[in-house]
Amino acid sequence: MRTAYTSDQIRAAELALMATLPEGTLMGRAAAGLAVTCAGLLTGLHGRVYGSRVAVLAGGGDNGGDALYAGARLARRGARVEAVLAGSRAHEGGLAALRAAGGRAAAFDEARARETIGRADLVLDGLVGIGGGGALREPYATLAGLAGETPGLVVAVDVPSGVDASTGRVEGPAVRAHVTVTFGAYKTGLLVDPGAERAGAVELVDIGLGPHLPDPDAAALTDEDVADLLPRPGAESDKYRRGVVGIAAGSDRYTGAAVLSVGGAVRAGAGMVRFASAEEPVRHVRARWPEAVTTVLDPSLVLKSSLDEVGRVQAWVLGPGLGTGPDAHAVARAVLATDVPVIVDADGLSIVARDRALLRRAAPTLVTPHAGELSRLLDVPRERIEARRLEHTRRAAAELGVTVLLKGSTTVIAEEHRPARVNTTGTPWLATGGTGDVLSGIAGALLAGGLTCYDAASCAAHLHGLAARIAARGGAGGRSEAPIAALDVAQALPEAVRAL
To answer: What positions does the entry give for AMP binding (predicted)?
Structure first.
């Protein structure tokens, strides 16, 4: 599991470790790891470090010191290193080491900085470290902009300048790195957009913090973690032991959502899918997924909050394409009145946003909104949620008393009193209609198979993203990606499970 921490947690661990080491040891370790990564990138570009041009953007703190010491190491290997000193002061030891190694350094001048950065093969962003917060001030903001214009590689030191290391917030200009070399442990802001998108590929340098780190602030499951959690049938398994999931989805207008959510559940390994809806979506599901046991709901029975005609299930998926009229509200009320876990998605979220009392239930509940749906649940502008995804996902979990899976460029899972989980699989091609319906079906199958809401949401997001990558690449071995449809994601799920 990839665990991540806030700035305060990292600083406390660093202080505890530094108390046991000679002065400067920690910075030396960080600079050495940073230089190794940069040397590898330069070798990949030109076959060598010697003769490469490196621009070091150095702030006045320890982050700038890390960058200057790394620059000195590269200069000793023959790189032409020039530092732009952004602060009113520079890290004395790092600056002296750079100059002693043959590197150059000068105070910020915009014209000179533009020239230095523009001709660099690699730009090292050491402007602001994990202690930075809020928008970058000048000349840091200008330098972040110049770094964005360079044709060379941009490597961020610990965290891209302008990105809040604890949350991933970006409140103004920020460096957009190709690679971020982070020290000691992952920072939460490197896993959550918009910070994750600015970080590029993240390389972790071990500097010995492990024994001093507390419980993580956030985590990202690996393939191995998900493989360990997934329910697997045994010799004594039957369809009932593997989990029966009920799906209340679709309407005369939205039959596709029903087909897709059932497909997600079938392909994710549900022992049985019981699908309940109006006659038209039932007809489409029967045609596409004959494995599903279907029921045409009698509105008069549903209005009495009864789903007895459907049969016993271990979990429910509620909402994809259901509509929001009186009949849909009655179905939602009946499903949420059951004593089994329920996933609420799509139109189900619109219904509970108008009647949040429906979420007051004893059994576990997982909601799977995108930012727009979460904005209605919390009465918060969508833009604010997208800028602070982690904060609002946690707030929703606490206020609503549910597990929350916030879909989007970064999928975040939150449950009160647990570290947030961040999904790292997926592809931008997932941004197409119906993929969320598939996700709800996957989560339903896992929930019916015995996973908790927290684990079912995390594993479903991971599988969903992995299946999308496989579908976009035309198979697990493909490299280039192409557009996909939602049904492609469902069809790729068995291959995604095999890949784990």
So the answer is: 407-411, 436
Is 409 annotated in some ligand binding site?
A: yes
Q: Tell me if 437 is assigned to a ligand binding site.
A: yes
375 is in an annotated binding site: no
User: Do the annotations mark residue 408 as ligand-binding?
Assistant: yes
Query: Tell me, what CATH number does 38's domain have?
Result: 3.40.50.10260
H-run or E-run covering 363: none
- Domain span at residue 283? 223-499
Instruction: For residue range 340-354, list pLDDT tens digits in order.
Output: 999 999 999 999 999
Q: Does 62 count as an annotated binding residue?
A: yes
Indicate whether 114 and 255 sit together in one domain: no
411 among annotated binding-site residues: yes
Q: At what angle do helices 371-378 and 347-354 cross, to 10 degrees?
A: 10
> Of 195, 216, 237, which closes a domain?
216
Over residues 325-336, the pLDDT tens digits come to 999 999 999 999
Residue 323's pLDDT band, with cuts at 50, 70 and 90, is: very high
Residue 476 has pLDDT above 90, yes or no: no
**Structural tokens at position 86:** 């952004």
Split at pLDDT 50, 70, 90, the class of 305 is low
Residue 204 has pLDDT above 70, yes or no: yes
How many Cβ atoms sit within 10 Å of the Cβ of residue 20? 10
Which tens digit of pLDDT belongs to each residue from 205-249?
Answer: 999 999 999 999 999 999 999 999 999 888 778 788 889 999 999
Query: Which CATH number do you get for residue 316?
Result: 3.40.1190.20
DSSP codes, 178-190: SEEEEESSEEGGG
For residues 10 and 184, the answer to whether their CB atoms sit within 8 Å is yes
pLDDT at position 322 is 96
Domain boundary among 171, 192, 216: 216
Ligand-binding annotation for 440, yes or no, is no
433 is known to lie in a ligand binding site: no
Could you give the number of structural domains in the chain? Answer: 2
Q: Does the annotation list 263 as a binding residue?
A: no
Q: 63 among the known binding-site residues?
A: yes
User: Comparing C-alpha atoms, which of 377, 447, 367 is closest to residue 407?
Assistant: 367
Q: On the CB side of 108, how many CA atoms lie within 13 Å of its CA? A: 20
Q: Are 396 and 377 in contact (CB under 8 A)?
A: yes
Question: Closest Cα partner for 157 from 136, 133, 130?
Answer: 130
Are 453 and 388 in a shared domain?
A: yes
pLDDT at 302: 65
**Total length of the chain:** 500
What average pLDDT does range 265-275 have in this prediction?
Answer: 97
